[in-house]
Amino acid sequence: MAVTVYIPTPYRKYTDNTARVEVQGGDVLALVRELEGRYPGLREQILGPDGKVYRHVNIYVNDQLVEDLQGMQTPLRDGDEVAVIPAMTGGSLTFTEEQIRRYSRHIILPEVGGMGQRKLLNSKVLLIGAGGLGSPAALYLAAAGVGTLGIVDFDEVDLSNLQRQILHHVHDVGRPKVQSAVETIADLNPDVKVIPYQTALSSENVKQIFADYDIILNGCDNFPTRYLANDACVFLNKPMVDGSIFKFEGQVTVFVPGHGCYRCLYPAPPPPGLVPSCSEAGVFGVLCGVVASIQGIETIKLLLGLGESLVGRLLFFDALGMEFRQVKIRRDPTCPVCGDHPTITDLIDYHEFCGVPPTARLS
Ligand code: ZN
Q: What is the pTM of this model?
């Protein structure tokens, strides 16, 4: 006689990752004992110290709850299918013990909980740039357990980056930033899959790179990339958490489809040479941490559907005056890209207009 038992993911670590096992079993209790003999540790997951099935675990025989049959004495026949299904509402059982410890301070927050943490682990965020903003944002999102982080950056680590780009270390100087990011994040949280894109975003690749992600976190420091990323997000209906810095000041906002975009605020980039870049103007390194942390907060809020998003508001931070200020922003019906009658319907590589080389540095 053979009975098939379905083993759900949380228990597969006891069954060498096998999802279905065959047992003899005479009744359900005998089946659990037989499983214990073959897979030590599994019984403790199903039966409590009193020998009874835990209340968060249900056992089904041919899709019927054993309580509705004869309980643990439910007889088993050749060809029967048994499933042992733990509750997953709390989420805790879908985590490894290490994950429960790692994310415990999230899991005990009712607003996040096991469900929220699971959501984060299943989420995909793309970071534009592994520089001043991308570095702290990537570290916090990785620490929080955002399961997939894409990172786009063509550049290599320079000693002058270490003043603010905290993903990178002395031994990374001269190495690709995305490579350094992969290693730093692996050291911080091996749960996180990092997908590196060592390339400059262009009209050729941006849609393909963005397509797979839930949210785009923009930490670039040049106008061609900023406009390209904005337009791609509008065309692909992707939310974008936008951050920028200049000397001692930062700006953060969130654009979601249908509620405006960067071009609603600033329809076109400034003429070449009018606005200096980071390398020309300098940047107060620690400012990056504040702006990128706010971007990280907004990203996680969007992923979990928590709180009041920055959508419709542009937040300014002045580090010298230590002042936060916000202004209301809204979709402009005459916006050239997300308005009622858009005039821009294709991606534009602005370097041709701005005089900034296509490999413009990401902050
Ligand atoms: Zn717009």
A: 0.73
